[in-house]
Design goal:
Radius of gyration: 20 Å
Largest sheet: none
Structural class: mainly alpha
Strand content: under 5%
Protein backbone atom coordinates (compact mmCIF):
# COMPACT_ATOMS: atom_id res chain seq x y z
CA UNK A 1 0.00 0.00 0.00
CA UNK A 2 2.91 2.34 0.72
CA UNK A 3 4.14 2.00 -2.88
CA UNK A 4 0.66 2.89 -4.21
CA UNK A 5 0.61 5.98 -2.00
CA UNK A 6 4.04 7.08 -3.22
CA UNK A 7 2.95 6.59 -6.85
CA UNK A 8 -0.25 8.53 -6.14
CA UNK A 9 1.74 11.38 -4.61
CA UNK A 10 4.03 11.55 -7.64
CA UNK A 11 1.05 11.48 -10.02
CA UNK A 12 -0.61 14.29 -8.03
CA UNK A 13 2.54 16.39 -8.29
CA UNK A 14 2.73 15.71 -12.05
CA UNK A 15 -0.92 16.73 -12.49
CA UNK A 16 -0.38 19.88 -10.42
CA UNK A 17 2.63 20.72 -12.59
CA UNK A 18 0.54 20.39 -15.75
CA UNK A 19 -2.19 22.59 -14.26
CA UNK A 20 0.36 25.25 -13.30
CA UNK A 21 2.15 25.18 -16.68
CA UNK A 22 -1.10 25.53 -18.60
CA UNK A 23 -2.18 28.30 -16.22
CA UNK A 24 0.95 30.24 -17.13
CA UNK A 25 0.20 29.88 -20.86
CA UNK A 26 -2.47 32.59 -20.67
CA UNK A 27 -1.86 35.93 -22.41
CA UNK A 28 -2.28 39.08 -20.37
CA UNK A 29 -5.82 40.51 -20.31
CA UNK A 30 -6.39 42.62 -23.40
CA UNK A 31 -3.55 41.04 -25.39
CA UNK A 32 -4.29 39.27 -28.64
CA UNK A 33 -3.09 35.81 -29.49
CA UNK A 34 -3.32 34.24 -32.92
CA UNK A 35 -1.44 31.03 -32.21
CA UNK A 36 -4.41 28.96 -31.13
CA UNK A 37 -3.94 27.29 -27.77
CA UNK A 38 -0.63 25.44 -27.56
CA UNK A 39 -1.54 24.37 -24.03
CA UNK A 40 -3.91 21.83 -25.56
CA UNK A 41 -0.82 19.86 -26.59
CA UNK A 42 -0.10 19.34 -22.88
CA UNK A 43 -3.62 19.06 -21.46
CA UNK A 44 -4.41 15.72 -23.09
CA UNK A 45 -1.90 14.12 -20.69
CA UNK A 46 -4.42 14.71 -17.90
CA UNK A 47 -6.73 11.99 -19.28
CA UNK A 48 -4.36 9.05 -18.65
CA UNK A 49 -3.28 10.71 -15.40
CA UNK A 50 -6.92 10.78 -14.25
CA UNK A 51 -7.34 7.10 -15.12
CA UNK A 52 -4.10 6.19 -13.32
CA UNK A 53 -5.15 8.22 -10.26
CA UNK A 54 -8.48 6.40 -10.11
CA UNK A 55 -6.71 3.02 -10.34
CA UNK A 56 -4.33 3.98 -7.53
CA UNK A 57 -7.17 5.27 -5.33
CA UNK A 58 -9.08 2.03 -5.91
CA UNK A 59 -6.01 0.01 -4.86
CA UNK A 60 -5.65 2.07 -1.71
CA UNK A 61 -9.36 1.76 -0.90
CA UNK A 62 -9.24 -2.01 -1.38
CA UNK A 63 -6.31 -2.32 1.02
CA UNK A 64 -8.07 -0.18 3.61
CA UNK A 65 -11.05 -1.17 5.66
CA UNK A 66 -13.31 1.75 4.84
CA UNK A 67 -16.99 1.19 5.50
CA UNK A 68 -19.74 1.73 2.94
CA UNK A 69 -21.19 4.45 5.17
CA UNK A 70 -17.93 6.41 5.06
CA UNK A 71 -17.82 6.03 1.28
CA UNK A 72 -21.40 7.29 0.88
CA UNK A 73 -20.78 10.26 3.20
CA UNK A 74 -17.61 10.97 1.21
CA UNK A 75 -19.57 10.95 -2.04
CA UNK A 76 -21.94 13.59 -0.71
CA UNK A 77 -19.02 15.66 0.61
CA UNK A 78 -17.25 15.48 -2.73
CA UNK A 79 -20.42 16.42 -4.61
CA UNK A 80 -20.83 19.46 -2.34
CA UNK A 81 -17.18 20.39 -2.93
CA UNK A 82 -17.51 20.05 -6.70
CA UNK A 83 -20.76 22.05 -6.76
CA UNK A 84 -19.31 24.90 -4.69
CA UNK A 85 -16.13 24.84 -6.80
CA UNK A 86 -18.09 25.06 -10.05
CA UNK A 87 -20.07 28.06 -8.81
CA UNK A 88 -16.86 29.68 -7.54
CA UNK A 89 -15.17 29.11 -10.90
CA UNK A 90 -18.13 30.56 -12.82
CA UNK A 91 -17.99 33.65 -10.61
CA UNK A 92 -14.24 33.97 -11.16
CA UNK A 93 -14.75 33.70 -14.92
CA UNK A 94 -17.31 36.50 -14.84
CA UNK A 95 -14.89 38.68 -12.86
CA UNK A 96 -12.11 37.83 -15.30
CA UNK A 97 -14.31 38.91 -18.21
CA UNK A 98 -14.60 42.29 -16.51
CA UNK A 99 -10.80 42.47 -16.17
CA UNK A 100 -10.45 41.75 -19.90
CA UNK A 101 -13.11 44.33 -20.69
CA UNK A 102 -11.29 47.02 -18.70
CA UNK A 103 -7.96 46.07 -20.31
CA UNK A 104 -9.48 46.31 -23.81
CA UNK A 105 -11.05 49.68 -23.01
CA UNK A 106 -7.71 50.96 -21.72
CA UNK A 107 -5.88 49.66 -24.81
CA UNK A 108 -8.38 50.32 -27.61
CA UNK A 109 -10.92 52.67 -26.04
CA UNK A 110 -13.73 50.17 -26.61
CA UNK A 111 -14.57 46.58 -25.65
CA UNK A 112 -16.73 44.33 -27.82
CA UNK A 113 -18.89 42.14 -25.56
CA UNK A 114 -19.22 39.45 -28.24
CA UNK A 115 -15.42 39.31 -28.67
CA UNK A 116 -14.93 39.02 -24.90
CA UNK A 117 -17.49 36.22 -24.77
CA UNK A 118 -15.83 34.38 -27.66
CA UNK A 119 -12.31 34.51 -26.16
CA UNK A 120 -13.53 33.46 -22.72
CA UNK A 121 -15.53 30.42 -23.80
CA UNK A 122 -14.36 26.85 -24.14
CA UNK A 123 -10.66 26.03 -24.16
CA UNK A 124 -9.46 29.34 -25.60
CA UNK A 125 -5.93 30.43 -24.66
CA UNK A 126 -7.35 33.53 -22.92
CA UNK A 127 -8.98 31.40 -20.21
CA UNK A 128 -6.26 28.85 -19.52
CA UNK A 129 -5.81 30.53 -16.14
CA UNK A 130 -9.53 30.04 -15.47
CA UNK A 131 -9.67 26.41 -16.56
CA UNK A 132 -6.36 25.30 -15.04
CA UNK A 133 -5.72 26.75 -11.59
CA UNK A 134 -5.51 25.53 -8.00
CA UNK A 135 -9.30 25.34 -7.67
CA UNK A 136 -9.72 23.25 -10.82
CA UNK A 137 -6.74 21.09 -9.78
CA UNK A 138 -8.53 20.24 -6.53
CA UNK A 139 -11.70 19.59 -8.52
CA UNK A 140 -9.67 17.19 -10.69
CA UNK A 141 -8.32 15.38 -7.62
CA UNK A 142 -11.69 15.10 -5.88
CA UNK A 143 -13.28 13.92 -9.12
CA UNK A 144 -10.70 11.12 -9.29
CA UNK A 145 -11.54 10.17 -5.70
CA UNK A 146 -15.26 10.24 -6.52
CA UNK A 147 -14.77 7.91 -9.49
CA UNK A 148 -12.66 5.55 -7.36
CA UNK A 149 -15.25 5.48 -4.57
CA UNK A 150 -18.11 4.83 -6.98
CA UNK A 151 -16.12 2.06 -8.68
CA UNK A 152 -15.17 0.50 -5.34
CA UNK A 153 -18.75 0.58 -4.07
CA UNK A 154 -20.08 -0.81 -7.35
CA UNK A 155 -17.53 -3.61 -7.29
CA UNK A 156 -18.29 -4.42 -3.63
CA UNK A 157 -22.04 -4.54 -4.26
CA UNK A 158 -21.56 -6.78 -7.32
CA UNK A 159 -19.46 -9.21 -5.29
CA UNK A 160 -22.09 -9.31 -2.54
CA UNK A 161 -24.79 -9.92 -5.14
CA UNK A 162 -22.83 -12.82 -6.67
CA UNK A 163 -22.32 -14.38 -3.24
CA UNK A 164 -26.03 -14.15 -2.47
CA UNK A 165 -26.97 -15.84 -5.74
Amino acid sequence: MKFAKVKLFIVHILALGIFLIVNQMTPNPGDTSGNGNPALLIVWILIPILIFMVILWVRIFRMSSISTTVFIISIFGILVHLTVSIFYQKNELNEYREVIKIALINREGVADAQYIQSITSGLDIHVNNQNFNINTYFMFVTFSILLAIVYTLWNTWEKKEKIQN
